[in-house]
């Protein structure tokens, strides 16, 4: 402490100051330091604090240097000098002093600086006291607070990890949670390893950080001398609290970990229902012990991880089975179609954000038909589970069978609805079936509660094609409404037909019409190649996410080098349905022009219209119109009109003012040959026209 030297001047009045009794009662000593003379007076309690006897102290501050270590003395001198220079009235600090027995203890001093009328410091009056107990208690409280804070952080990390694991659906999701920088590394672990038990072995599924993998430990036997194998065998955790303990316990593994500066490790068995499914290791580089609470927290963490892993493994097993089932139900391959480019895609729904995929009942199919025709199917069975996939597979097969048998599109849909109704299920399905003749471009479509198709023309414009619809499959049979109107549209060369499920259209917060307009705009702006366009749709669906499947089928008609012979078209015309009659006329006109019969187009259309009208007027049922090209010595176009009446048509002479009776006369005059055939309980009126062979086009 600073020595200001003795002065010849008299000591200040009232020096030394006398302590209040309360100071002695609180074991505080007092001092009075005259700054002019340098004399430092202490009372008896202050002598005890400094551990000096009165006869050992001469009243000079530097004499206390035997008790105050030099470093502490310099710090005290600097503190007092700064307080005097700054004009402060007081100061206080803790410092250490060395007792008579050589031990160090903490002391606290507080001084009050007295100045004269000019502001000059004249004396310092203050107290000193033993602060060892106080600081020990403060340190203890500080350590306990730090420990509590560390425990709260660890508990918080476990809680956060447990909450994150609750959303993990796959093993990789669990691994991602564990390796998250905001996850378990907050527990202070330098690295982690995790393995799963498989057939008596442990397969490593996670390790970190990069570069910490130990060669030869990717797959190890449970009985090998590794810590993960040990905890799996014993079903007990292993806490290693020193490098020496690690090296002694696992001499094979330890040499590979020396570069990581590992000081401790915790290996935990991952146990579910008393059965080990794996093990996890946390390696530390800054700790050498695990308290009882540390161990309990880590055990709780291991239990949470084990439960999450078990749940994830069950989920992946179910997904493997379900996806295998669904892939088996969908067509393995799509046949090549002469005259068309085809692309199909399927995307499973995303469930719970980006954490997993589910399965559903969406499907597509492409069915080759006689005469170069092709049937395109898109459908969606209600639900997202294995049952929906199983129903989808059965429905796809019967639709394919009914179409291959040669039934009209309306009949195919009606029979499929009856099948689904009679199936032991409560599911219904929406579906759209389109039968296309690629030679003529005529497409006949029926819709069962499904969304309309889109057509992109060769110039890139895209439009929604309204198709009159019936009830969804299963419901129509249940309510006895099996009427599925047929819409006829023409697909020009270069045009693309798009069939899709509502997962590609519907978005939360928007209606179906807005979704269809947005899809049409996307189609119009998309690439011309159908495969690239299909990929674009899937990219959009991936970006959007959503909880519904997406299935789509694109069919682009190519221009044929020459019109094809041997084509066959068929249209069902219900009585009292002007749209069906219009569709039949449209089909006839397109077929005649495409099959190279333009010179006789008016004759063929007039005769076919007459036969259809007769069937609708003179019978109580519907008419089925079939057009086909017959090849042989002479190429002919044949028109057939079937009805359910067995009564044969009769030729009648019409009067001058008669408005009927000329139908068969027209047929006889305009056709090359015609006739009538019995068909079960009904009949078929047919006629043929000689047409020239196809020319190169």
Describe the structure.
- This protein is α+β, with helices and mostly antiparallel strands and 697 residues long.
- The protein has 16 helices and 27 strands.
- Strands 8-7-6-11-10-9 form a six-stranded antiparallel sheet, with helices on both faces.
- A hairpin with a 4-residue loop joins strand 15 (429-437) and strand 16 (442-448).
- The chain is elongated.
- Residues 2-8, 352-357 and 561-565 have low confidence and may be disordered.
Characteristic key phrases:
27 strands, disordered N terminus, elongated, six-stranded antiparallel β-sheet, alpha+beta, 697 residues, six-stranded mixed β-sheet
Question: How are the SSEs ordered, and which strands pair?
Answer:
Layout (H helix, E strand, L loop, with lengths): L20 H5 L2 E7 L5 E3 L1 H7 L19 H17 L3 E9 L5 E12 L5 E10 L1 H35 L4 H9 L9 E10 L2 E8 L10 E3 L5 H8 L3 E3 L2 H7 L14 E9 L2 E10 L7 H38 L10 E8 L13 E8 L4 E9 L4 H19 L4 H14 L6 E9 L4 E7 L5 E3 L5 E3 L4 E2 L4 H4 L8 E4 L5 E5 L11 H14 L4 H15 L5 E8 L10 E6 L4 H17 L6 H18 L4 E8 L5 E8 L19 H8 L2 E7 L2 E9 L7
Helix pairs in contact: 4-8, 8-9, 9-10, 14-15, 15-16
């Amino acid at each position: 402490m600073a020595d200001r030297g003795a002065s010849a001047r008299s000591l200040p009045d009232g020096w030394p100051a006398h302590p209040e009794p309360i100071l002695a009662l609180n074991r505080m000593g007092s001092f009075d330091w005259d700054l002019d003379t340098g004399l430092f007076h202490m009372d008896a309690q202050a002598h005890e604090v400094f551990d000096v006897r009165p006869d050992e102290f001469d009243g000079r501050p530097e004499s206390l240097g035997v008790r105050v270590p030099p470093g502490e003395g310099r710090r005290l001198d600097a503190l007092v000098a700064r307080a005097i220079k700054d004009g402060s009235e007081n100061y206080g600090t803790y410092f250490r002093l060395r007792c008579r027995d050589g031990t160090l203890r903490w002391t606290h001093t507080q001084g009050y600086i007295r100045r004269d009328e000019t502001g000059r410091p004249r004396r310092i009056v203050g107290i000193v006291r033993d602060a060892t107990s106080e600081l020990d208690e403060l340190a203890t409280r500080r350590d306990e607070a730090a420990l509590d804070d560390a425990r709260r952080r660890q508990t918080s990390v476990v809680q956060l990890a447990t909450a994150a694991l609750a959303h993990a659906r796959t093993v990789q999701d669990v691994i991602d949670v564990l390796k998250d920088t905001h996850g378990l590394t907050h527990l202070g672990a330098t690295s982690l390893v995790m393995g799963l038990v498989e057939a008596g072995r442990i397969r490593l599924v996670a390790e970190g950080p990069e570069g910490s993998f130990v060669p030869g430990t990717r797959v190890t036997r449970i009985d090998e001398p590794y810590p993960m194998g040990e905890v799996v065998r014993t079903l007990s955790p292993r806490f290693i609290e020193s490098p020496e303990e690690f090296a002694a316990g696992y001499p094979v593994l330890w040499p590979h970990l020396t570069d990581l500066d590992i000081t401790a490790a915790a290996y935990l068995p991952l146990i579910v229902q008393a059965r080990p499914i794996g093990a996890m290791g946390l390696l530390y580089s800054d700790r050498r012990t695990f308290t009882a609470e540390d161990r309990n927290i880590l055990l709780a963490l291991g239990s949470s991880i084990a439960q999450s892993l078990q749940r994830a493994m069950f989920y992946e097993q179910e997904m493997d089975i379900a996806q295998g089932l669904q892939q088996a139900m969908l067509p393995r391959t799509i046949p090549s179609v002469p005259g068309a480019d085809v692309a199909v895609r399927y995307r499973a729904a995303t469930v719970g954000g980006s954490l997993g995929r589910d399965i559903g009942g969406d499907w597509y199919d492409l069915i080759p038909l006689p005469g170069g025709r092709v049937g395109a199917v898109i459908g969606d069975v209600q639900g997202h589970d294995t049952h929906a996939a199983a129903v989808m597979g059965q429905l796809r097969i019967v639709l394919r069978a009914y179409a291959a048998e040669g039934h009209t599109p309306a009949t195919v849909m009606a029979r499929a609805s009856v099948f689904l109704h009679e199936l032991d299920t409560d599911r219904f399905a929406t579906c759209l079936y389109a039968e296309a003749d690629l030679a003529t471009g005529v497409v006949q479509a029926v819709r069962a509660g499904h969304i309309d198709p889109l057509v992109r023309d060769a110039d890139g414009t895209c439009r929604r094609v309204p198709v009159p619809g019936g009830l969804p499959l299963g419901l129509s049979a249940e309510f006895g409404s099996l009427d599925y109107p047929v819409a006829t549209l023409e697909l020009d060369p270069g045009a693309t037909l798009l069939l899709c499920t509502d997962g590609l259209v519907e978005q939360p917060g928007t209606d179906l019409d807005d979704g269809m307009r947005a899809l049409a705009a996307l189609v119009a702006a998309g690439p011309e190649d159908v495969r690239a366009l299909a990929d674009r749709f899937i990219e959009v669906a991936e970006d959007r996410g959503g909880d519904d499947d997406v299935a789509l089928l694109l069919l682009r008609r190519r221009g044929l080098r020459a019109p094809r012979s041997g084509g066959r078209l068929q249209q069902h015309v219900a009585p009292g349905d002007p749209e069906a009659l219009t569709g039949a006329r449209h089909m006839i006109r397109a077929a005649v022009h495409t099959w190279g019969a333009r010179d006789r187009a008016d004759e063929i259309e007039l005769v076919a219209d007459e036969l259809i009208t007769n069937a609708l007027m003179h019978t109580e049922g519907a008419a089925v119109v079939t057009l086909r090209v017959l090849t042989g010595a002479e190429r002919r176009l044949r028109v057939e009109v079937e009805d359910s009446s067995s009564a044969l048509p009769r030729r009648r002479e019409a009067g001058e003012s008669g408005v009927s009776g000329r139908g068969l006369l027209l047929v006889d005059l305009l056709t090359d040959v015609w006739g009538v055939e019995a068909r079960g309980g009904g009949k078929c009126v047919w006629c043929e026209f000689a047409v020239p062979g196809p020319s190169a086009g």
